[in-house]
Amino acid sequence: TGLITLDPGYGNTGACTSAITFIDGEKGILRYRGIPIEQLAKNSTFVEVAWLLIFGRLPSQAELDDFRERLVRSAPLHEAFKHHFEGFLVDAPPMAILSAMVNTIACFPRRGAESESPEENFLENAAQLISKVRTIAAYSYRRSMGLPFIYPDFKLPYVANFLHMMFSTPYEQHIASREVVDALNLILLLHADHEQNCSTSTVRMVGSSQANIYASCAAAVGALWGPLHGGANMAVLDMLEAIHKGGISAAKAVEMAKDPNDDFRLMGFGHRVYKNFDPRARILKQAADKVLGQLGVNDPLLDVARQLEELALEDSYFVERKLYPNVDFYSGIIMRAIGIPTNMFTVIFAIGRMPGWIAQWKEQHDDSKARIARPRQIYTGPNETEYVPIDKRK
Ligand code: CMC
C-alpha cells in the first residue's frame, strides 16, 4: 500500500487528458473547446454547442443542418418502446425512468446501427441520444401526470419540440414564447459539459470497460441524480420553498447551514472546483431577472434566493470556504418560472449534459492509450481471520 496515494473524492487526481472543457476555478472561467461560455451563451444555441463539444470546432452551416436533420429524425420512440413507460408506477421518479430508458434505446433497432462507417454509426448514436433523451424526458412527465404521450413535431426546433411534447394536449398545441424557448436553450447550453464531474467521470468509468455509449450514459444519469450533483437544482427549490412556507428568515437558514451539528447545507452553494463565482450562475442570475421580468412573474422564492445570496456572500463562513452560488442556484428559479415542474429539474440537467457525456465518451474511445479505469484502495479491514463454523459463532 506504500505506493498508493489516497485521494478521497479524487480532488487532486487527474484521471485523463481532455481537450473539451477548460475550467479555472480560482478565476471563475469556463470555456468549451476554448470558447468562453459567455460568448456561447450570447451567440449560440444548445444544438450548435452540442456539435462543438462533440467534434471539437464550430460546425459549418451544412454540418449544423445535417445534425439538426438527424435530431429531428431521431426524436420519435419505437412504438413498442412506449409500453416500457407503463411498467412504472405513476409517481416513479423521472430520473429512474430516464436511466432505464436510455439503456433501453440500445435494445431497439436504430438508424445507423448497420452502417459500416464507424463515424456514421457514432454520429447517429449521438443524435439518437441527444434527441431521444428529450422525448423520454417528456414522456416520463406525461406518464407521471396520467396524460397521453404527444408525438414530436418535425417542424419544431429542439427546445420548442421538447416543450410541445411536455405541454401540448391532443386538442391544443402548446406554443412556447420566444422568451421561454431562449431561457431553456440557455439553461441546456450552460449545462452541456463541465469536465470530469461525477456523472462525466461515470461515463468514462463505465465506457473504459468498452461498454456501449448508451450503457455509459445511462449510468451517468444515476450519478447525476444525487443531491450533491444534478439533484441539487431540485433541492434548491425545495429549500427555498421550505424557507418561504416555514416562515424561516434567510438569516436563520444561513445560521443553520453554518452549524457543524446541523446537516443542513445551503443548496446551490459551493463547488469542488469553483472557488469564485460560478460563471454559469453569473449568466443565469441575469437571465433569471430578465425572464421573470419579461414573463411578469413575481416569485417570492426569488426574493428568498436573493436574500440568501446577499447574506452568504458577506458571511465569513462562506467567504473563508469560498462558497459561491453555483449553476443550480438560479436554474431552478428560471425553470419554475417557465412552468417546468420541480421533479423534472434534474431531468433537464441530464438533457443538457448529454452532449458533454457523448463528447467525453468519444474522446476516451478515440484515445488509443486509454485503459480500463481501475482505482486502487487502502485496505483497512481485519488481518487474516479463521473461518468459524456457524454453530461455534457467538
Ligand atoms: N452550505 C454550507 N456549508 C458548505 C456548503 C454549503 N452548500 N458546501 C460546502 N460547505 C462547507 C463544508 O461543510 C465544509 O466545511 P468544513 O471545512 O468546516 O468541514 C467546507 O465547506 C468544504 O466542503 P466539502 O463538502 O468538503 O466540499 P466538496 O468539494 O466535497 O463539495 C459540494 C462540493 C458542491 C458537494 C458542496 O459544496 C455541497 O454540498 N453544496 C451543496 C450542493 C450543491 O449545490 N451541489 C451542486 C454542485 S454544482 C452542479 C453540479 O456539479 O452538479
UniProtKB/TrEMBL annotation:
Q: Which InterPro entries match?
A: Citrate_synth-like_lrg_a-sub (IPR016142), Citrate_synth-like_sm_a-sub (IPR016143), Citrate_synthase (IPR002020), Citrate_synthase_AS (IPR019810), Citrate_synthase_bac-typ (IPR024176), Citrate_synthase_sf (IPR036969), Citrate_synthase_typ-I (IPR010953)
CDD domains registered for this protein in UniProt: EcCS_like
Transport found in the keyword field: no
Q: Which reaction does it catalyse?
A: oxaloacetate + acetyl-CoA + H2O = citrate + CoA + H(+)
Molecular function terms, GO-annotated: citrate synthase activity
Q: Which domain of life, per UniProt?
A: Bacteria
Q: What keywords is this UniProt entry annotated with? A: Acyltransferase, Transferase, Tricarboxylic acid cycle
Family from the record: Belongs to the citrate synthase family.
Instruction: Write the protein's name.
Output: Citrate synthase
